C-alpha cells in the first residue's frame, strides 16, 4: 500500500548512488591528492598519482573490450599494480579475479577458464608457470585472453614475459578516464575468488559492490582506524581481495606499504622505516614476529596494531603478541563473507583481567561486524539457535549484506550454502553467555573417538603452549577400536628439542585423557600461501604414514 511518502519522492542522481568502493579512490584523489598513497621500494605515489594510474589502466582495459561482466584475472604479488587493479577493474563494472600465486599451472588454467578470463595481468616472476597455464588454457579449454606483463622494479630474480602488452607502456599509451564511476547496480559482481578446492574443484565465490563497500567501512569501524593509517601488506591481496583493505585504506586516505616478500626481517624493517601502524596476517605470520631476533624490533616505537584471522589463533600466539606490545584484534570470516565479518570486540573491563583471561576472551570469534545483519550458532538440522551456554555445539551462520552473491556456475552449491535463509559456514562453534561465538572446529576436522567429539583446535592450543612447538596440526587417524584417534604433526622452534613422550605428558596436564594425541609426528606441515594449514593432506598422511621422532 502506498503512502504520502511514496508520492513525488523518487530516487534520482542527486539522492541515490549505487554503493561501490570505487568512490573511495575518487574522494581521496580529490581531498588528499598530495598525500602518500603507495610505497614500494624506491617508488612513491600520491593519491592523485594512484588515481591517474588507475584511470589510465581502466582506459587501457576499456580499449581491450573490458566492460560490465568481463573478467580480468591477475597473477600479482603485493605491488602497486595489485593496488591499482582493485580500483580500475571495478570502475569499469568488470569483475576482478585474483589468482593465488602458489597454484600450479593446471589449476590456474582451470580457474581462468571457469571465470572466462578476458584479460590476464601477470608479474614476470610468474612467467614460467603462467606460460604453461596459458598454454593449457588455449589447448585444453580453447580460450586465449589478452595478456599484460608487469615488470616490477623490486623483482630481482628470474623474469619471463608471456604477454603481448607491457603494463607501463599500456598506461602511457592511454589518457586517464575522466571519472571512475563504478556500477549502475550495486548488486553487480565486483570479484570472483576461488576457494581452496580441497574436496573437488574449487568454487568461485562471487561478491558484489555493495558488500565490498560495506565491509571496507566495517574494517575501519571494527579497528577504529584513524585517517591516514600506514598499512603494511603482509596479507596477500589475492586472498579475499585483501579482506577489502585496498578499499579501506583508500577510504581513509592512508598509505599502502607494499611487501613483495613476507618474512620477519622484511616486515619489521618496513614497520621501522615507514612507521607502519596497521597490518593483517594469519597466525603463522604473527608467530614469525614472536620468534624473530628481538634486535629486529629495535627502533619500532610507534603503536602497531595487528589483525589476525585465517585460522583460529592459538592462545600462545595471542599471549606472545601481547608481550611484544603489539595490539592484536581477532576477526573471523570466510571468502564467502568478504574475509572477516565478525570480531572479538574488546570490552573495557577486559583490560583489568589477567593476561591468560584476556587471551581466552580475545581468542573467540566474537560477534558480527556492525554492518553484517546476523551471526549466530545454529543446529543445521532444525535451523534453531543453540543455547548460549558455551557447551552446545552448532554451526556458525551469517546473513546480511556482507555475504556473497553465490558460487559461479554452481546453483546447487549456492542453494545449499543459503539453506534456511542463512549462509552456512561449515564451522562448528558454541555460543557463550555473552553471545560471543567460540569456534571449536571445521565440521570435517572434528575427531570422533569412541563416540566422543574432540576439537582439534583445543588439542592444538595445548600443544602450542609448549615452548618447543613452532607449528602444529591435529587430525583424525582411523583406529579399529575407537573409530578415530588424534594424531599431532609438529614443527619445532629453531634450536628446540623435545620428545614425543614429553609432548604427550605436557598435553595430559592440560586435556582430558581421551583428547591427548595418541601419536606425535615430527614432520613438515603443508600450508597455503596465506598460512592456513592444509589438513586434508595431513589426513591422507595419517591414514598410511608411520610415526617417527
TrEMBL record:
Residues 25-408 form the AMP-dependent synthetase/ligase domain. Keywords: Fatty acid metabolism, Ligase, Lipid metabolism. InterPro entries: AMP-bd_C, AMP-bd_C_sf, AMP-binding_CS, AMP-dep_synth/lig_dom, ANL_N_sf. GO terms for biological process: fatty acid metabolic process. The keyword Lipid metabolism applies. Residues 458-532 form the AMP-binding enzyme C-terminal domain. Pfam families: AMP-binding, AMP-binding_C. It comes from the Bacteria. One of its GO terms (molecular function) is ligase activity. Belongs to the ATP-dependent AMP-binding enzyme family. NCBIfam families: PRK08162.1 (NF006020). This is Acyl-CoA synthetase.
